[in-house]
Amino acid sequence: QVQLVESGGGLVQTGGSLRLSCAASRSILSLNTMGWYRQAPGKQRTLVAALTSGGTINYEDSVKGRFTFSRDNAKNTVYLQMDSLKPDDTAVYYCRATLRPLTKTYEYWGQGTPVTVSS
């Protein structure tokens, strides 16, 4: 079992910055993958940035150069630094983790943190 708790969302003006945090209930080194997703009103949940099991960080095209995924293993926390925010970035942001103890993969989600970018 993994509990994920996001924080850091809020209201920001266009061009502003926010840093989201996702604290895990267990060592993030034990997790297969971790990532950030977002869901805008009336739209599907989509990938923003993800750390793969191989150590690669993948970003959705529209956030490349503006968002940065990072982690603090000692704090069991991953972050999403969001700079140069745009109104299109408005969404609820979710943290996701996968755990694969043997051959089955388990998926866990946080409760989400809302981000609103005003124009």
Structure description:
The protein is an all-beta fold and 119 residues long. 0% of the residues lie in helices and 53% in strands. It has strands at residues 4-7, 10-13, 18-24, 33-39, 45-51, 57-59, 67-72, 77-82, 91-99, 106-109, 113-118. The strands form two sheets. Strands 2, 4, 5, 6, 9, 10 and 11 form a seven-stranded mixed sheet that branches. Strands 1-3-8-7 form a four-stranded antiparallel sheet, with no helix packed on it. Strand 9 (91-99) and strand 10 form a beta hairpin. The termini are far apart. The mean pLDDT is 96.
Brief rundown of the structure:
The chain is mostly beta strands.
Class derived from helix and strand content: mainly beta
- β-sheet strand percentage: over 45%
The total count of helices amounts to: 0
**Estimated helix fraction:** under 10%
Overall 3D shape: elongated
- Oligomeric assembly: single chain
* Integer-rounded radius of gyration: 14 Å
Mean pLDDT, to the nearest integer, reads 96
Walk me through the topology:
Elements: E1 4-7, E2 10-13, E3 18-24, E4 33-39, E5 45-51, E6 57-59, E7 67-72, E8 77-82, E9 91-99, E10 106-109, E11 113-118
Parallel strand pairs: 2-11
Antiparallel strand pairs: 1-3, 3-8, 4-5, 4-9, 5-6, 7-8, 9-10, 9-11
Keywords:
single chain; 119 residues; mainly beta; four-stranded antiparallel beta sheet; 11 strands; 0% helix
